[in-house]
Amino acid sequence: MDKGSPAVVDLRASLPAWYAWLDPFMLGPILQKAGMAWSIRPEQVFSAWQHWQQDALRWQGNSWHSLVEPGSPDPFPAKEDDLRFNDEVWSNNPFWDSVKEWYLFNTRWLQDTLYVTPELNERERNLAAFWLRQWLNAIAPTNFLGLNPVALDKALETRGESLLAGTKNFLRDLSEGDIAMTDRDAFQVGKNLATTPGAVVYRGRLLEVIHYQAVTDKVHAVPMVIVSPWINKFYILDLDEKKSLVNYLVHQGFSVFITSWKNPGPEDSELSFDDYVVDGIDRIVEVAREISGSPTVNITGYCIGGTLTSVWLAWLARRNEESKVASATLLTTLTDFERPGDIEVFIDEDGLDFIDRKMEKQGYLDGKDMAASFRMLRSNSLIWNYWVGNYLMGETPRAFDILYWNMDTTRMPRKMHSYYLREFYQHNRLKDPDALTIAGEKIDLGLISVPLFMVSTEEDHIAPWKQTWKLVPRVSSDLTYTLSSSGHIIGIVNPPSPTSRRQYRQGKPEAGQSADDWLATRESHSGSWWPSWVEWLKPVSGAEKAFKLSSRKHPKLCDAPGSYVLE
């Protein structure tokens, strides 16, 4: 990726080594470059200043007008998805309305001015805009007790009890090292999360294999193997009886195996992506084949688990072993990382060097570091919303299983994660035939020919759906593509429900068809895509046969959800 202009590169080279720790994304040189660009264009500075003065006069006029007519339309309205100023006091009280409008007009002016800054390239502009947005979100009046009328009113109503509760919440979260997004005491893995009955039938250095108990008289002969993302724990696919994809499949007569990845520590720093192919996905497939007696499996990969599945399918094809797979399903899966969503702001040489230094020091990347990065992509809803609720309002976050899972973080081993970030995200080599050699084989996604079912989501900021689409023309598979409403999690954890407001579009892409053209020809279906997936799976899943939970070679080691998920 572009590191910037030669002037900025030279400036970085002249900086002391310790500066990289102080400013890992080299924002300082970018700001200096922007300042120099403005300094030699006084006419553009004057124009920007005129725009600010015009907005300031509009703000002043609105402030006087609101004294006469409270609740009148705002000249600088908040965006529709900005819920910070939803309380009517921000509109009906002239003073608080003027505070809100002052913040909003200055925010808009600063962002617009940065966008038109001369000399910055796209990478520098995006990076500067991202960090400016973080700063502007942090200084919002809603985040400060003295500037938040809703929090002040509650403090008065409760005679300070809300402030006392907020202080306790702050001290609790400080000791945990994270802002609570949900009531941590409301959930326990194995008690009210990850409750589908089953057994651990294999335990190795990388994963436990969980095989779920059948609830039907017979099961399909071809087992379902689910490769969960090891960036998070597997039970996002087994939250509770109603939301569990695992439980749904079991009730549809499938024999289901899932990866429960080990949470790596310093001793695992040398685990590689090759290991995840050979001792991870290939191992669980062999376990499923041995226990079920089926020569083939249906395999499903979610997020990075889907990326691993894609690599493994190409790896198998190179070894002429693709006959092990009856079908493959990829859920919100990137294989082309050219535009990987908002996360790309962290993916450049400086950012990756910073991550490498952290991992060299401890042997892994801590899950809280990754979670913080993802939360910054939606900082108002995932950080400051909880700052205000937990500390200024003194509230206990409501119990929400998905948010509990989101806070139950995992670590990434140094060698694997560095390779993944650099070869997949930074250099985007997975898309190029034979550019990567993994577990001894050159990887070419074009060799994949098994029946393929892909699911992406409309609002995914981690795996944007048009980016996942780029796999469609590369494979030679009989392929069905599904686009679900909602985002990366809710669009997948999408059980059938008579009250569901979600929708999906589905169909086989035609040769040479673009993502937009495909979308234009697809009608919208109400509800969950899960039943249509099961109907797609049945013809490739074989006849029904007696169920076997374990075998002599792979006996039951303990009940699900096992021990690795609790680490």
Please tell me about this protein's structure.
Helix content is 42%, strand content 12%. The chain is of the alpha/beta class. The protein folds into 2 domains: 6-148, no CATH class; 198-337 and 428-566, Rossmann fold (3-Layer(aba) Sandwich). Strands 15-14-13-12-7-6-4-5-2-1-17 form an 11-stranded mixed beta sheet, with helices on both faces. Strands 3-16 form a two-stranded antiparallel ribbon. It has a two-stranded antiparallel sheet with strand order 8-9. Helix 6 (94-115) runs antiparallel to helix 7, helix 9 crosses helix 15 and helix 11 (273-292) packs across helix 12 (304-318). The radius of gyration is 26 Å and the shape is globular. The model is unreliable at 1-11 (pLDDT under 50).
Second CATH tier, the architecture of the largest domain = 3-Layer(aba) Sandwich
Please report the distance between the alpha carbons of the first and last residues: 36 Å
Q: Uncertain runs with pLDDT below 50, 5 residues or more?
A: 1-11
CATH class of the largest domain: Alpha Beta
Number of domains: 2
Give the beta-strand count. Answer: 17
Structural class: alpha/beta
| Percentage of residues assigned to helices | 40-55%
**CATH fold-level assignment of the largest domain:** Rossmann fold
| Major pleated sheet | 11 strands, mixed
Mean pLDDT: 92
Radius of gyration: 26 Å
Number of helices: 20
CATH homologous superfamily of the largest domain? Alpha/Beta hydrolase fold, catalytic domain
Estimate the strand proportion.
5-15%
What strand order characterises the main sheet? 15-14-13-12-7-6-4-5-2-1-17
Shape: globular
